[in-house]
Design brief:
Layout lengths: L7 H5 L5 E2 L22 E6 L14 E7 L3 E8 L2 E8 L3 E9 L2 E8 L4 E7 L4 H14 L24 H13 L4 E6 L2 E5 L2 H7 L4 E3 L2 E5 L3 E6 L4 E2 L6 E8 L5 E6 L3 E2 L1 E8 L2 E8 L2 H10 L1
Antiparallel strand pairs: 1-2, 2-3, 3-4, 4-5, 6-7, 6-15, 7-8, 9-12, 10-11, 10-17, 11-14, 12-13, 13-15, 16-18, 18-19
Amino acid sequence: MISNYRTPEFDRFGPWIDEVRTVEDVPRLYRGAGLDPAAYRLMLKIPRDIERRNATADMDLYDHLLAVDEESFVVLSRRDHTYDAIRLPLDRIAAVQDSTHLLDGCLTVFTIDGGAVSVHYNGSADGPVLDLVRLLRRGYLPEGPAAGPGPHPYPPRLDLGRQEAGLVTDFERIMAREPRMRLLNVGGRQVVTPVSPVERLYRAVRPVTLLASITVTDDRELLFLHHRAAFSPGGDDLSLARTVLPRARISAVYATPDTRYLGVHVVTVQAGAARFDFPSTAGPATEALLTRTA
């Protein structure tokens, strides 16, 4: 027998990420937290990764409730029939990373004590997540626009090949939206050679590629555009990732030779106890990146 039981939450459920504007919009599971959308600059609800036909009105249909106010980022995450609650002060954020691989989206916020919270979402609905990232960045940055040179009316045009068209398009969008950003470093994709002679034999048939990356900066932030994984056996044309770090939190930047591949350096950016590694081709470009970042 088919049940006719329905709820407004069930009727509105889908793969999209919805903004929560009223208390009635708060998913049933999270109402006990007492969060009033009117008190937050933005509140989003992230649906479960299930098909609509498999959803029922008695299910808890949302995996996360995210909220940003003037001082903190609140994350409520479903766990069986209850939820975990995390409140991150904006002034403790070390980095924000957002990545997509086809429909697999992931937002991770890192803190200077080494902690991190990750939220997975449907990558086809990343618009609200990008709005959330912009709010988080605005929350930890000092008041006023970035200082330094004025907006660049003609950002540099990059050609990293057909396989990196998505990365270049992302770069162009960022430069259009944030015209005070300056190009800091570009690393094109290239096949790398393993250090191990044994692995070298194997990789002669199935080579590994160091994927492309682009670094931009202004006087307040470093923004790395890259792929989810720096190295790929078959290439990666499908993922995109952005890692943004406030300069005020950065405590060290250094490079060390990669232990697995020849001619590759790992540029490490440290922010308190948080550490981020960005492999890059060894040479003048890496040295310039270290100098300009410092």
